[in-house]
């Protein structure tokens, strides 16, 4: 009498499942690191676009969107001014669209607002020199104001 030897035993199936699980666990950290680097790259590109927008505003009106040295949040009021859709005619009297409306709320890849202020000497720190450059900040992956923030100056 012949016995059927077709199919896999339970042990063989378990070995295959364990090998697949181990391979998945080996790949996961590298994939998450790539995703984090992609988010940082996107944040830098967004901040460069924001810096270009603010510089275009400064070139047009010979003034900054805000006239003090405080840190300003890139929020809906900022986007209203920069897209020319503001009700405050004093901030963008010609109603020039310096940028299109951002998708969503214009947050960084981690869901927080960008910030900007004058970087007087271009060292990514606030100083006292009269040569003002714009510094755009993102709090980065940890979403706290710390030394690992992402900063772009223009």
Instruction: Give average pLDDT, whole number.
Output: 80
User: What would you call the shape?
Assistant: elongated
The beta-strand count equals 4
SS summary, helix count: 2
Any idea of the CATH class?
Alpha Beta
Residue ranges: pLDDT <50 for 5 or more in a row? Answer: 126-130
- CATH architecture type: 2-Layer Sandwich
CATH topology: Glycoprotein, Type 4 Pilin
Going across the major beta sheet, what is the strand order?
1-2-3-4
Strand portion: 5-15%
Structural class: alpha+beta
Q: What is the assembly state of the chains in this entry?
A: single chain
The string of secondary-structure elements, in order, is: HEHEEE
What percentage of residues falls in helices of 4 or more residues? Answer: 25-40%
Sheet having the most strands: 4 strands, antiparallel
User: What gap, in angstroms, lies between the N and C termini?
Assistant: 84 Å
Instruction: Kindly give the count of domains.
Output: 1
How many whole angstroms does the radius of gyration measure? 25 Å
């Amino acid at each position: 009498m012949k016995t059927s030897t077709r199919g896999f035993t339970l042990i063989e199936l378990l070995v295959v499942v364990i090998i697949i699980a181990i391979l998945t666990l080996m790949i996961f950290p590298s994939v998450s690191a790539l995703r984090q680097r992609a988010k940082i790259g996107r944040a830098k590109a967004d901040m460069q676009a924001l810096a270009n927008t603010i510089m275009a505003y400064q070139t047009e009106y010979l003034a900054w969107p805000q006239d003090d040295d405080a840190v300003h949040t890139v929020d809906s009021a900022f986007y209203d001014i920069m897209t020319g859709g503001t009700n405050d005619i004093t901030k963008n009297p010609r109603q020039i669209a310096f940028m299109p409306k951002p998708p969503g709320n214009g947050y960084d890849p981690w869901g927080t607002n960008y910030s900007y202020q004058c970087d007087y000497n271009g060292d990514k720190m606030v100083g006292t020199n009269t040569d003002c450059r714009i510094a755009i900040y993102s709090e980065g992956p940890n979403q706290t104001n710390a030394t690992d923030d992402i900063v772009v100056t223009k």
